[in-house]
Amino acid sequence: MLETTLLPHTSSGVHFLSAHAVIRQLIRSSGAGPGDLVIDFGAGPGTLTAPLAATGARVLAVERDEAFVRKLSRRFADQPLVKVVHADLRTVPLPSRDFSVVASIPYALSTVLLRRLLSRPRRALVGADIVVEWGFARRVVAAQSKETAAWARKYEMRVARRIPANCFRPAPRVDSAHLVIRRR
C-alpha cells in the first residue's frame, strides 16, 4: 500500500512550480484543448490554470486556501472558461463527465488524490499529468502493490520526466516527477 502523511492545514509544505519549460511540457502532454474539461487541483496562484485556459479548455481551478481563491477569482474574473472552486481536493465532488487533470499538488496529498481518481467505479478520468514526488512516482508505475496493480489494469502510468527541485519556489528537498496517466 502507498503511504502518505497528511500535512496539517497550517503546514508550509507548498512548493510552486516555477519553471516555464516544465509548465509548457505538462500542458502540451495533457493535450488539453477546446471542449475539454480539465481540473487544476491545488491551483495556488494559477501557474497552470492560465496556460490551461489558453488552450481553450474549460478549467476548474480547485484551491482550498482562501487567499489564493480570492486572487484566482480576481485574476480569472473575465475568463468564462475558468471556474474557481474553493474546496479541498480530498473532498471536492468530481465530475461525472469525462475530465482530465493537470496539477502540481502537495506531495502529502498524492496518494489521496490518486485513490480518488483511479479507484472510482465510473471511469470519468481520461488522463492526468501530475507533478508528484520522484520516489512516489516510481512506486506508482512499478505497480507492485495490489492497489497500484489494480490501477495499472485500468490506466497506463509512466514517468515522463524527472523535475529537479530547483524548478520550484521554494525548492523542496527532493526532486519531483511528471507522472502521466491515461485511461486504457
From TrEMBL:
SUPFAM superfamilies tied to this protein: S-adenosyl-L-methionine-dependent methyltransferases
EC number, as in UniProt: 2.1.1.184
Record protein name field: 23S rRNA (Adenine-N6)-dimethyltransferase
Keyword Transferase attached: yes
PANTHER family xrefs: DIMETHYLADENOSINE TRANSFERASE, RIBOSOMAL RNA SMALL SUBUNIT METHYLTRANSFERASE, CHLOROPLASTIC
A GO MF label: 23S rRNA (adenine(2085)-N(6))-dimethyltransferase activity
EC class of the enzyme, as a word: transferase
Ranges for domain Ribosomal RNA adenine methylase transferase N-terminal: 22-184
Family: Belongs to the class I-like SAM-binding methyltransferase superfamily. rRNA adenine N(6)-methyltransferase family.
Alphabetized Pfam families for the sequence: RrnaAD (PF00398)
Keyword Membrane found: no
Binding-site positions, S-adenosyl-L-methionine: H15, L17, G42, E63, D88, S104
Residues that span the membrane, as ranges: none
Assigned keywords, A-Z: Methyltransferase, RNA-binding, S-adenosyl-L-methionine, Transferase
